[in-house]
Amino acid sequence: MVKGLLSLHSVQLNARIAPWAVASFAIALLFFAPVLALVFEASGDSGGLWQHLFNTVVPRYVANTLVLMAGVGLVSLLFGVTTAWIVTRYDFTFRDSLEWILLLPATVPAYLVAYTYTDFLEYAGPVQGLLRDMFGWQSARDYLFPEIRSMEGAILVMGAVLYPYVYMMGRAAFLLTPLSLFEVSRLASKSMFWRVGLPLARPAIAAGLALVLMETISDFGTVEYFAIETLTLGIFNVWLGMNNLAAASQIAVFSFLFIIVLLIFERAARARRRFVDTGRKSVSLVAEPVKGWKAAACMAVCCVPVVLGFVLPVGVLLTFILQGHSLDLNDTVISAAVNSCLLALSVAILVMSSATFMVFTSVYFGSLLLRRLTALASAGYAFPGTILAIGVISVGSYFDAWIGAVFQGFWGRGFSGWFTGGLGLVVFACVVRFQAVGYGAVTSGYERLSPNMMGASRSLGRGYVDTVRLVLLPLMRLSIIAGGMLVFVDVMKELPMTLLLRPFDFETLPTYVYQYAKDELLEEAALPALVIVLTGVVPVILMNATLRQFSPP
Fold first, then answer.
1. Measured CA distances, 146 to 113, 123, 310, 429 (Å)
2. pLDDT, position 343
């Protein structure tokens, strides 16, 4: 007992003095710095506006945000978990294709889906026009048709494009669950899904759901277009409409409470929900062949979210292009596409490298403080991109001032704007924004490893570098690659921070499309909007190929 306590004390002491732990601590603080800058900005005087907002509109903002989160979460769980289990459990016609097709809605920005759905379902759109022609209706008073620009419409639109977070995490968990555990439920005549698959996949599903809810909190384009007063829309209205940055920052800090609750929820979902297969070789569940009406039902269930989140919006964009409304594929569009891909690739590598390093360091040295800081470093995902950009600019200005002081001290001349005037600020902002994606993926993967691996590695005389290189990275490559693909696709769709922080000569596909979409000229921007979708298809295919390596032959 005494020896164990001394060993634990030694590990904690090493965590405080080890260079790896110090570096991880510094990275976590750097990523959390923009959030601290926002808190500092929120401490300013709002001229009494915050108290007025809190007494009038903030309760409505909170209620709408909670309703939107609950609705989008339920839709994402319904689509994500059911489809993940179906393609893992059953073998039917087109199953191999549906495995990666189900990921395609993740490539479509939610605001584009909102635009296309409105064009497709509004009074002057093709659906209502066809109904009037078929039944002889003359005006909207002659029939009832659901309003797409509503809370229900926003829930459907966002759930249809965000469910791939849950689908991918759930499918990876189902694939990594050993066959021996499913065989136990089969011998006991219990449901393989309710008794084994779902309980053991719950930590991964919770991680995917947390990402969905954080993305829901941060969404601006959809709620603004549908006129739904959420906290995010309130922040924009106060900042841009009332020109009160302090009050907007105060609302943003208030919304930070939601991310704290989500992080606690995700952590609680993982608690004491670990399993280890002690067999020599872990074998995944073999898909059961189904035919007839069962196969048709499986295909139908898998096709519904794909149609809603991908086929319909892409079909509307293709219609605009075929009708000749869209702009041509010129040099500007190609340059914007290249810039978007390079930015997304750079951010994906940095996010997964930093998240992997911080998680591995905290668990290797057994430092609870590092684990908490690593979790807090992912808090930027909850803030709207425009508001988070304020904190990033503040941090960047301090960094530029420090560089200027160094230049002044060594060379006797000033230097300013190196960081805030270049692409480094955009990359840093995106890394902070999407750190939660990498953290969730890496943590979910690590939770499925044996808790004795670190101790075994130490007893064999392996240091930190050897443990990471020989033990952790090979076992967690699936989670790391999957997280990197999610980051890539997210950055390809990122608009607010890129629009505010980019240099004047740097254009991405989202900023290019935004110039037209904000003026209700989506038809002219259909081609570059479609390019945003297509650039995310390749990572989706590669991600699915990686997942298939863990499927049984």
1. 17, 10, 21, 39
2. 93
What's the first-to-final CA gap in the chain, in angstroms?
47
Average pLDDT over residues 369-375: 79
What is the identity of the amino acid at 308? L
Amino acid code (one letter) for 53: L
Of 346 and 444, the structure prediction assigns the larger pLDDT to 346
Query: Taking the alpha carbons of 420, 424, 428, 433 in that order, is the dihedral positive or negative?
Result: positive
The confidence score (pLDDT) of residue 83 equals 93
31-52: average pLDDT: 81
Backbone φ, ψ for residue 289 (5° rounding): -65, 135
Q: What is the mean pLDDT of residues 80-101?
A: 88
Q: Answer yes or no: pTM beyond 0.90.
A: no
Q: Give burial (CB, 10 Å; 0-12/13-18/19+) of 39.
A: middle
User: Contact, 82 vs 102, CB < 8 A?
Assistant: no
Work out the widest C-alpha separation in the chain, in whole angstroms: 86
Alpha-carbon distances, residue 488 vs 106, 156, 238, 249, 528 (angstroms): 11, 24, 31, 28, 18
Q: Decide if pLDDT at 419 tops 70.
A: no
Given a contact cutoff of 8 angstroms between Cβ atoms, the answer to whether 222 and 114 are in contact is yes
Q: Using CB atoms within 10 Å of the CB of residue 403, give its burial: 0 to 12 exposed, 13 to 18 middle, 19+ buried.
A: middle
547 is written with which tokens? 């997942």
- Residue 240: C-alpha distances to residues 43, 306, 395 (Å): 19, 36, 22
Read out DSSP for 204-273? HHHHHHHHHHHHHHH--HHHHHTT---HHHHHHIIIIIS--HHHHHHHHHHHHHHHHHHHHHHHHHHTT-
